[in-house]
Specification:
The protein is mainly beta. It folds into three domains: about 45 residues; about 80 residues, no CATH class; about 120 residues, Immunoglobulin-like (Sandwich), CATH 2.60.40. It is about 15% helix and about 40% strand. The protein contains two helices and 17 strands. Helix 1 runs antiparallel to helix 2. The longest helix has 30 residues.
């Protein structure tokens, strides 16, 4: 049961031995008073920490060159698997400091891999940006364009007209989600640089061996395309790429550079 400071003092006083000197008694009572005060302060601090609201993110101030402006506000949000899109600014508002300085208060907190792009716009033209501010997650090993990819030590070699075999790309880590969810789609495309022509694209690829990297928390997988009749009718050095498209509609291509090389030897 919690006791108030006077109750603590009274309880402590009953524990004082009867033969203490007057000086010792004074020191003892002062110590009890200090202890009671410390308990009361600690209780107040603990209450204030629990009750205090989380501070909203504010943009740094920017000078727009004039006082009394009423800039508009746009807030866009993105993550590593979704493109930029306008969102409701919520409680965000442009605040005038003075001398032409303004900032945006009450911005939403960025959670996980979210990024926010804040735009102060002209009051008369919402498409005219006066100042911008970006905050949130930064590209790193969890972002898809930082994928750790294992490229073949040498180009795959085939004979012209072959339709047996496969092209495989191993991604060790860097994929943002588990792509074996059934909603993520992988495709393969093949390009002939000598004629600057895409031989085919959008061919379904197989997603297998999906694993999570314990260090980064990102995902890895193997992407496999099984050759079909007519794929290798053209002899020469061809370039292949896999394309991953997520349920959100966001897509990216792997590898970015260099592309997978397929050497197709001319048939006799």
């Amino acid at each position: 049961m919690r006791r108030t400071a006077p109750e603590l003092m009274l309880t402590a006083a009953t524990l004082i031995p009867p033969k203490l000197t007057a000086a010792t008694l004074i020191i003892f009572r002062v110590a009890v008073l200090l202890a009671a005060a410390a308990l009361m302060i600690a209780a107040l601090i603990s209450v204030s920490l629990v009750a205090a609201p989380a501070a909203a993110a504010d943009s740094p101030p920017v000078n727009l060159g004039a006082e009394g402006l009423t800039p508009g506000l746009r807030v866009l949000k993105a993550s590593d698997v979704s493109p930029w899109a306008d969102v409701d600014p919520g409680s965000a508002v442009v605040v005038e400091i003075g001398a032409g300085d303004y900032y945006v208060a009450g911005l939403p907190d960025a959670v996980g891999r979210e990024r926010y792009f804040v735009v102060m716009t002209s009051a008369g033209d919402p498409n005219r940006a006066l100042a911008t501010y970006v905050y949130g997650a930064k590209p790193g090993q969890r972002i898809v364009w930082r994928s750790d990819i294992v490229l073949p030590a040498r180009p795959r070699t085939f004979k012209q007209g072959d339709s047996f075999g496969a092209v495989e790309l191993r991604v060790n880590s860097g994929l943002p989600v588990d792509i074996s969810d059934g909603a993520t789609v992988a495709t393969f495309q093949l390009y002939d640089p000598s004629d600057d022509v895409v031989l085919f694209s959008g061919r379904a690829a197989v997603i297998s061996d999906v694993t999570q990297d314990a260090t980064s928390g990102s995902w890895g997988a193997s992407l496999i395309y099984d050759l079909q009749a007519g794929d290798l009718d053209v002899a020469g050095t061809l370039l292949g790429e896999f394309r991953i498209c997520y349920p959100s509609g966001a897509c990216h291509t792997l590898p970015t550079t260099p592309a997978l090389e397929l050497v197709v030897l001319e048939a006799f």
